[in-house]
Design goal:
The protein has 173 residues and is mostly helical. The protein contains six helices and no strands. Helix 2 packs parallel to helix 4. The protein is elongated.
């Protein structure tokens, strides 16, 4: 949530700089926003991959295990595409989770049974709400054309994940 707020503030700064005539400052801010998007999207994707792996083995239902595997597979695909764009833009993406995401994963991994199922699906729903918001902004405001297309192309998939997670969350509660 904090990253989303920071991203919104950064987006506001971008729009303020674009309104000025100083093209260099606007370009620098835009490039930094693209970089921050890549870092945030990568961290969120790594969380989905790792949490999906845990869910595919620790879930109590076939549906939850299958959903975990779907998150693992699809977010691995998304991450690989993002890594190519980041490489082309000379942005180094981390290969490990941020401390905040690692703590969430650790707390999830310690659970079992219905507590695991409930917590996993709530975390996935929240994570996808954040991702959809992040990708929506990037799909309209990215400076890097490949990154803009990447965000726009993956929005339908992320929205579908969000809807499925919400549906599963509602059926568990």
């Amino acid at each position: 949530m904090k990253r989303t707020k920071i991203y919104f503030i950064a987006a506001a700064l971008l729009f303020a700089n674009v309104a000025c005539d100083d093209d260099t400052a606007g370009t620098d801010v835009t490039a930094e926003l693209d970089k921050q998007f890549m870092l945030s999207a990568s961290d969120g994707g790594l969380f989905e991959i790792n949490a999906g792996q845990v869910a595919s083995s620790n879930g109590t239902t076939t549906a939850l295990k299958a959903f975990g595997q779907q998150m693992l597979d699809e977010h691995t695909d998304i991450k690989q595409a993002l890594m190519k764009i980041a490489k082309d833009a000379n942005v180094d993406l981390p290969t490990t989770l941020s401390n905040a995401k690692q703590q969430k994963l650790d707390s999830l991994s310690a659970l079992s049974g219905i507590a695991f199922d409930t917590t996993y699906i709530k975390m996935v729903a929240i994570s996808h709400e954040e991702a959809v918001n992040l990708y929506e902004i990037q799909a309209t405001s990215a400076r890097n054309i490949d990154l803009k297309a990447f965000a726009a192309d993956n929005l339908p998939r992320l929205r579908a994940h969000l809807e499925k997670a919400r549906s599963m969350r509602d059926s568990i509660q």
